[in-house]
Amino acid sequence: MRNLLIFITKYNAFFLFIIFEVSALIIYIKYNSFQKATFINSTNQVTGNMYQQVGQLKKYLYLQDVNDSLARENANLRNQLKTSFYVDSAAKHKVVDTVYKQQYQYIDAAVINNSVNRRNNYITINKGSRAGIAKGMGVICPQGVVGKVVLVGEHFSIVQSLLHKETIISASLAGSKDLGSFVWSDDMNPRHGLLYDVSNSATPKLGEWVVTSDLSLWPTGIPIGKISNLHSKTAKGSFLNMDVTIAVDFSKLKYVYVVNNKLAAEQLGLEAQEKKDE
Amino acid sequence: MSRTIITNILRFLALVFTQVFLLKNISLYNLSTPYFYILFILLLPFETPNILLFALSFILGLTIDAFYDTPGLHTTACVLLAFVRILFISITVQKEGFDNEPEPTLSNMGFRWFFTYTLILTLFHHFFLFMLEVFRFSEIQYILGRALLSSIFTLFLILISGLISYKSKERK
Question: Under CATH, which number does the domain A169-246 receive?
Answer without folding.
Answer: 2.40.10.350
